[in-house]
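input
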Amino acid sequence: MVKKLKNEPCPAVTMKKIPTRQITATQKEPAIAESFSIRDIQLLLAGKDMVQELHRHDFFYILALEKGAGVHEIDFTSFKVCNHSVFFMQPGQVHQLTLKSGSSGYLLQFKAGFYYPHDKASNHLLRKINKMNFCRFDAAGFKRPLSALAHIFNEYNNRQEKYEEVIRANLDILLIELIRQNCRNGSPATVSYTRERLEEFLELLNIHIATRKQVSHYAALMNLTPYQLNAICKTSLGKTCSQVITEHIILEAKRYLLATTNQVNQIAWQLGYEDVSYFIRLFKKQTGFSPEQFRQNSG
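output
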C-alpha cells in the first residue's frame, strides 16, 4: 500500500533539478534551430575527448558512430562505445558520456514537435524504439543508417526548398533501419496492440509519476480497467503493473540521487512521498541499499 502522497515539493526547501540540456544549433533559424540539430562528431570533438557529466535532455537524442571509443552510461546501464553503433535516448533519460578523440559519425537531436507535429505514424516509429538505447551493426549494415544521416546533415546545412520535409523523410528511414536491426538482434518484428498500450502507459509514467502511484490512476487515463492494464504489463514484461510503477519510482530516485546534491527527504518530496521513512524503506527493499548508501557507492 502506498503511503500518503504529496503533490508538490515542500515550499520551504529549494531543490535542485537534474541538469537538463536543450538543443544548441550551429546555425540560427527560428523555424528549426530550437527543435532540431545534427552535428559532425569529428568537428564537434575537434581532436579532443568529450567528457559529459550526468544530465538529461528534453529532446530525442541519436548518437551514431562509424568509428568510436569510450563509455556511454544511460539510466545507469553502461555501454562500451564501439564502431558501427547507434545510441538512442528519449526525453527524460539521464546519461553520461566519455567519447574519445578520433571518433566519427553524427549527433542528431530533435524534439517531438519537429518530427511528428500531426503525424501518428511517426509517433508510432518512435514508440517502437524508445526503449532501445543501444544498437550495433556490422560494417555493411551500418552503411544504410549512415547514408540517411549524411543526407540529413547535407539538407540541414544547405537548407534548400522543403529541406525540413526531406530531413523528416530521412529520419523515418533512419528509425526504420534501427527497428530492422533490432529485429535482427532478436526483438519482435511487429508491435502488437498490447505493446502499443504498454508504451502509452510508460509515457504516462514519465509525466505523472510524482503525483500518481496507483494502477487505477493510469488505467483511467488509458480508458482501461486495472485488470486490463495489469494483463498488458504481465504479457509484455512478465511483471505486474504495480511492479512497473515501483521500478519507475526507483529509477527516478536514482537519477536524482546521482545527478543532484538534493537531500534524501527533498528527493522523497520531489517524487510525491510525504512519509520520508517509507520512501527510504521502499528504496532499500528494491535496491538493497539506503538512498545515501546508493549515492555513496555509485559516487
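quick obs: Residues 233 and 239 are 6 Å apart (CA to CA).
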